[in-house]
Amino acid sequence: MAPKPNPGDNRTRSSIQIFIVAGLCCFFYILGAWQRSGFGKADNLAMEITKNTGGDCNIISNLNFETHHGGEITSTDDSVSEKKVFKPCAPKYTDYTPCQDQRRAMTFPRDNMIYRERHCPPEEEKLHCLIPAPKGYVTPFPWPKSRDYVPYANAPYKSLTVEKAIQNWVQYEGNVFRFPGGGTQFPQGADKYIDQLASVIPIKNGTVRTLLDTGCGVASLGAYLWSRNVIAMSFAPRDSHEAQVQFALERGVPAVIGVLGTIKVPYPSRAFDMAHCSRCLIPWGANDGKYLMEVDRVLRPGGYWVLSGPPINWKVNYKAWQRPKEELQEEQRQIEEAAKMLCWEKKYEKGEIAIWQKRMDGDSCHSKQDESQVTFCKSSDPDDVWYQKMETCVTPYPDTSSSALKNFPERLYAVPPRVASGSIPGVSAEKYQEDSNKWKKHVKAYKRINRLLDSGRYRNIMDMNAGLGGFAAALQSPKLWVMNVVPTIAERSTLGAVYERGLIGIYHDWCEAFSTYPRSYDLIHANGLFSLYNNKCNLEDILLEMDRILRPEGAVIIRDEVDVLIKVKKIIGGMRWDTKMMDHEDGPLVPEKILVAVKQYWVAGGNSTSTQ
């Protein structure tokens, strides 16, 4: 054991801090090696670690997970008040999605997909237990192998292998699911389908970076677009196609549970370079074109909308689709009229694929829209969408042009148009650059703490309070992606600027459960989140939700004021997480600290594993 530091001996305190950092780095190294080997398959692991670390990992056995504040701050004594220990939930909750619970959904009307929207449990029905992983759960394969293979034990549902057998979605082989890259509209593979789209849409040069895939299935389009430097935000409801979004996330592809119903989608206006529907079963022409108006809201000027499948080319396919040709003809007529009303230009129609492009500005549309008596949305903030009803109106073009948006990857650090135009109060171009530089510094410090951060060990990453997306930008790598969450109660609505950097994200209120399955993320980052939500809702609920969406042996980095972190650490003490409090990279006198945690491996009905 290291000697206890003398409060007056700064050199001793510095040594202890170095001891902690070195120990934690070694701790993460062991953890990564353990996971790569597969849980319970570490016969030669000790020899491997000794070879790679020079035998310098005996420090792990002496890791002390108490708080260290460099002698400047007195920590609370947890022994004074007994910590609350959270028990495992029943095994039936292994895939529990609180706000998309199937039983609760069936109590709501089916009109306009209301029953598939978010319906969160009231306070008295919230679970206050830890969601277990299913028996046999293993760490997902690293990318890009995960694109094609998912361990059966992680999502043990075979229904799609039967329902979509001829469409080449997914196949069950031994103890894994294999994803051949097919889909309902691309049985020859996603790559060939993307090649066809790329003959019309400028995918290669970075003009198209962000894509919204509605009714995404198992997200094969997003999976195969990744190699072309396009990142897709895919969504699908939790419905009869069991686990489609769960499969997407297990594959390492960004996806959320969602639906086009009566509520606006949780994305900012002018966010996506492209939107896509491949036989997504959304009635685009219904409700006076309301769903296409919502796509128009989130589509960037000059962006593209792709529709493949019914009713495109209905004259040839109506028999194969087993639908009346009159019905399909009317459906396409409604879509064409709605697109015309939106001033979209049809660029392509061949086979079962049609592509429209949104105009770069509204000037050329005014006369046409005046003639058609278009109703424009009156809301002063088209980004105010959380639980807001979808409207039958057209979102006006912004006063400032989006034409200054650079191609990716240049746009990652270019000043976003929303910032340059002064659309985000309190954020100037200078403040934006300062924020980017700050996050480069923070991420550099994180990589010293956890050397596996950009190794490919963490594929699915979430930033719970993303701000301007600086954390995700500093981490940018083909090995990972970041879901940038902007809380609905954040001081500034910055998600539009995040998208203008070529990143993806979503609005969310952390007083409620996130729209995803358990065990969706490998690493979760939370900067200032608990200070933001302090006295807004129960911090315990937020931490239990983090545990739900974090994979076994996943990592957490929480950056916040020390007083808040002490409260958080006390709650975590009953959650089967191993933790370490660390000083800010600028030293112990900075009141902001870093809490690093790793979720222990445990499964339903099984024992946990701990590094302690």
From TrEMBL:
Metal-binding recorded as keyword: no
Transmembrane domains' residue ranges: 15-34
GO cellular component, one term: endosome
Membrane topology recorded in Swiss-Prot or TrEMBL: Single-pass type II membrane protein; Single-pass membrane protein
Biological processes per GO annotation: methylation
EC class of the enzyme, as a word: transferase
GO molecular function: methyltransferase activity
EC annotation from Swiss-Prot or TrEMBL: 2.1.1.-
InterPro entries documented for this protein: Put_SAM_MeTrfase, SAM-dependent_MTases_sf
Compartments where found: Endomembrane system; Golgi apparatus membrane; Membrane
Pfam families: Methyltransf_29
Main subcellular location of this protein, as a coarse class: membrane
Keyword field: Glycoprotein, Golgi apparatus, Membrane, Methyltransferase, Signal-anchor, Transferase, Transmembrane, Transmembrane helix
Similarity-based family: Belongs to the methyltransferase superfamily.
Name this protein carries in UniProt: Methyltransferase
